[in-house]
Design goal:
Elements lengths: L1 H12 L4 E2 L2 H11 L4 E2 L14 H6 L6 E5 L8 H11 L4 E5 L6 H10 L5 E5 L3 H10 L2 E4 L8 H8 L4 E4 L2 H7 L4 E3 L4 H13 L4 H14 L2 H13 L1
């Protein structure tokens, strides 16, 4: 109730409202008949980094694992990925990167994964480890049910990783002409798309084109200029 109240006050009284996605822009227009300024997030591109730490710590090599790197909370949809991975019979490992809070949801995820030795939990991942994980995965998967604008997806795309996401607009609009999508909240659909993506060749040319696309659309130069222009107006 408090968050909804804050939203209404922003829509009614703010001089300008910045939103991150077309879907949020549409939401404010449909709900409050309020125009907003769309300024998408920016990221520092992830440098392509060879395997080192991930091999020493987790015995991971280039292209032999699927990566989930995001907050481990219900809306990120990790439960669908673990279920889909187990159904798919894929022989590549599934790496779940980052801290797992002591929550009921995280205990559920661990319980789902306990009988599968190919599911690896890295725990806290520093920047060097994150770079290696993004750079060398066979797939980066974001199965989220809802998003604002996922920085982890933009980061993964920035270093040329092949990406699979749920088909919510906040993800598909970021993907553009790259990556693959599955039906949100549908583990069977995700299992099929994982196999399909791994059976296709992710070429050097596609990877580089994706990196350039992210640099052109999610750079800090663009981000800062759009904010400055808005403040000046």
């Amino acid at each position: 109730m408090y968050l909804k109240f804050g939203e209404k006050m922003a829509a009614k009284f703010a001089d300008e409202i910045i939103v991150l996605s077309e879907e949020m822009q549409k939401y404010f227009k449909d709900t409050y008949n309020r125009d907003t300024a769309l300024i998408k997030n920016a990221v520092v591109p992830i440098e392509k980094t060879p395997c080192d730490k991930i091999t020493k710590k987790f015995n991971l090599k280039k292209d032999d694992y699927i990566l989930f790197l995001a907050r481990v909370t219900p809306e990120k949809g990790l439960q669908y990925l673990v279920s889909a991975y187990k159904k798919s019979g894929i022989d590549k490992k599934l790496v779940i990167a980052g801290d797992l809070p002591d929550s009921e949801y995280c205990h559920e995820i661990k319980n789902m994964a306990k009988d599968c030795e190919n599911i690896i939990f890295t725990g806290f991942a520093d920047l060097d480890l994150v770079k290696e994980l993004y750079s060398n995965c066979a797939l980066y998967v974001l199965p989220s049910e809802t998003e604002g604008l996922a920085l982890t997806l933009i980061e993964a795309m920035s270093c040329g990783a092949q990406c699979v996401t749920s088909d919510i607009p906040e993800n598909t609009l970021v993907l553009g002409d790259f990556g693959k999508v599955f039906v949100s909240k549908d583990a069977n659909s995700l299992a099929f798309v994982l196999q399909e993506a791994l059976n296709e060749t992710w070429t050097f040319e596609k990877s580089n084109a994706q990196t350039e696309y992210i640099k052109n659309n999610y750079s800090y130069d663009r981000f800062c200029k759009e904010h400055e222009d808005l403040y000046q107006r």
